[in-house]
Amino acid sequence: MSSAAASDRRHRVAVLALDGVYPFELGIPSRVFGNAEDAAGRPLYEVVVCTVDGRPVRADAGFSVAVEHGPEALETADTVVLPPAGPCDTVSAADGIPQPLAAALGRVRPGTRLVSFCSASFVLAAAGLLDGRPATTHWQVAERFRRAFPRVRLDEDVLFVDDGDILTSAGVAAGVDLCLHLVRRDHGSAVANHVARRCVVPPWRDGGQAQYIERPVPEPTVATTAPTRAWALERLQEPLTLAEMAAHARMSLRTFTRRFRDEAGTTPGRWLTAQRIELARHLLETSDLPIDLVAHRAGFGTANSLRQHMRSVLGVSPAAYRRTFAAARPARGARAAQPARAA
Length: 343
Hints:
By secondary structure, the protein is an alpha/beta fold. The chain folds into two domains: 197 residues, Class I glutamine amidotransferase (GATase) domain (Rossmann fold), CATH 3.40.50.880; 122 residues, Arc Repressor Mutant, subunit A (Orthogonal Bundle), CATH 1.10.10.60. The protein contains 14 helices and ten strands. The strands form three sheets. It has a six-stranded mixed beta sheet, covered by helices on one side. The protein has a two-stranded antiparallel ribbon with strand order 3-4. β5, α3 and β6 form a beta-alpha-beta unit. α9 packs across α10 and α12 crosses α13.
């Protein structure tokens, strides 16, 4: 294949549908990746759906899903997505995964990106692919997952975990969050934002899945931290303190911290840092501002502070991030590589 042909090749996503598949999650990759286009309107991804034997599978909603591909589709995939299915959360490290599924996954090329939605993380864990690695799953089955796979570093508070070549998401709509994240990682925020608008979903959601865990419904008179989060987003370049945020919410520090974590799924400090990282990423991708000015506008004060936070969260420096995603701007229409993680 010529270099020109290779550069024009679309990223191939293979979705592996298991028996008992959940139809909503099965459709997420096609909807999200299928809406990603370059500046000329050309699709950036090719999405195919396959099964372990090429035959139809039952959905958990009372109908069958007929597919056009068998497990051979996994051999040419750049990304393999596993949506959840009814039996997923019953597998264990001791029992492993069924032989037909193991054979199908054995066709995946080394280096292929693996993605699971919701309880499909059980399949990756039972196959030994998550040992010693961070991952997440739906909060309702988190304790079962932890008991079944003690070697996996489970974090049930987040919407998704990106560990480079293996990514896992929490339940249902978190699969949309993860796919949008991948589009952003591959092609930059402008393309991902365009996809989100087409799908009528937010480009990213604040906090983690802890905010969705069942809790007693608060009384209508109980104050919320939402107005303070909106207020803080307009002042990210200012040195906001926890005391200032609590004062704006008219709560004590203790009450504000507890209520913020209940509503956003994380602490005020971590939330603030995450929002500043998102702003810095946007400025690095869409502007030519000097790193010092990006750091100032994002609220990190100095380039060194921004550098430390980006290395901690993303594994790359601001300069390296900008070099990677400069090629991902819509005007170029090129497929960006994943940033190299810091040593």
